[in-house]
Amino acid sequence: MNPKSIRVKEKKNLEIIWEDGSNFLLPLKYLRDQCPCATCKGETVLLKTYRPPAKAIITPEMYIIKNIETVGGYAIQIAWADGHNTGIYSWDYLIQLNEGQNVEDGQGKEQNYNDLL
After folding, report:
1. Model confidence, pTM
2. So what's the architecture of 3-100 in CATH?
């Protein structure tokens, strides 16, 4: 399933409307905090694991989207106002993020990458 529309709504959520008419909102803070790139989540190369340090400085620009581009027919790449732009969010990953978020308080479930690293 592919998105029909993706847009920032009220400067705090990403709204995704799918081809089947379903839709959901992802808080920008949750989306950025769950950025799937190696800089944010770590990676393993040649049996050596890299785990990124905790963010020392958090700025409001971290949670402002500057631009969104599609990647192939399977994902989006988000450019954030603080210059970060290496995360590629696949359609499947966006659906997982939506399923993992707690609707009551707008906070999301931390994605667990430890098994992959």
Report:
1. 0.81
2. 2-Layer Sandwich (3.30)
